[in-house]
Specification:
alpha/beta; Rossmann fold; 7 strands; globular
């Protein structure tokens, strides 16, 4: 697969990341129906927002990518999606029941400022739901991804990783970060090895990738070694 095909394949996905696993997470959290006010940070082209809207929720979204926001507006004109960053939310205090971010937390450089902003826009009984990769599993995979996409050497791949995934956390680091900002963080046991995950392994590791999953399945790892953290944060 060429570099252009790899990049196009990612853009053409229904949503950033593992859509099926993310949707399962929302179902586990009771969001398959309801009428809550929900903000998605990093909404991309709006697939998750549309899923929540069709379940009955009142949704808004933000993203730092102008092209993604344009696509979201074109595909889902009924959704309020705007250009904004996760560390400066253009919303009033205490106006959301749920704030959601999926594959976004690791991209926001000032994690503390981000968590303060989320706390500000959440209602007192509100919840922050998030998914973010594990620092210790993401670093080697993203370095491999950089090499496959751009043919960069180890040093440049690592620099690119740190620029893009600038706020990677381990299990303990994530818990500590949230606690310092006034949250109780609860990790959710959710499987991620599905067709999307297997195809991702095949894309970057070749035929060996899916075969490895029969021997080393990350869904069987203890929580602190999971490839992706799904978590629920509530105020302390």
């Amino acid at each position: 697969m060429t570099d252009h095909e790899l990049i196009s394949q990612e853009w053409d996905q229904e949503a950033w990341g593992n859509f099926a696993a993310n949707a399962h997470f929302l179902r586990l959290e009771g969001l398959h129906r309801g009428s809550r006010n929900i903000l998605e940070i990093g909404c991309g082209k709006g697939a998750i927002l549309d899923l929540l809207r069709r379940a009955g929720h009142f949704v808004r979204g933000i993203d730092v990518d102008p092209e993604a926001i344009r696509e979201c507006a074109a595909a889902h004109p009924e959704i309020d999606a705007r250009l904004a960053s996760g560390d400066c939310l253009p919303f009033d205090n205490a106006c959301f029941d749920i704030v959601l971010s999926l594959d976004v937390f690791e991209h926001i450089r000032d994690s503390d400022r981000h968590l303060r902003e989320v706390r500000r826009v959440l209602k007192p009984e509100g919840t922050y739901l998030l998914q973010t990769p594990n620092k210790w599993t993401n670093i080697p995979f993203e370095m491999l991804r950089q090499w496959r996409k751009f043919h960069t050497g180890p040093a440049q791949s690592y620099r690119n990783l740190l620029q893009d995934h600038c706020a990677l956390h381990s299990y303990r680091e994530l818990k500590a970060r949230f606690f310092r900002n006034g949250y109780q963080l609860t990790f959710v046991d959710l499987p991620v090895v599905n067709d999307y995950f297997k195809e991702k392994m095949r894309t970057y590791l070749g035929p060996l990738g899916p075969g490895l999953l029969t021997v080393v399945n990350p869904d069987r790892f203890p929580m602190f070694l999971r490839t992706n953290f799904y978590a629920r944060a509530t105020r302390i």
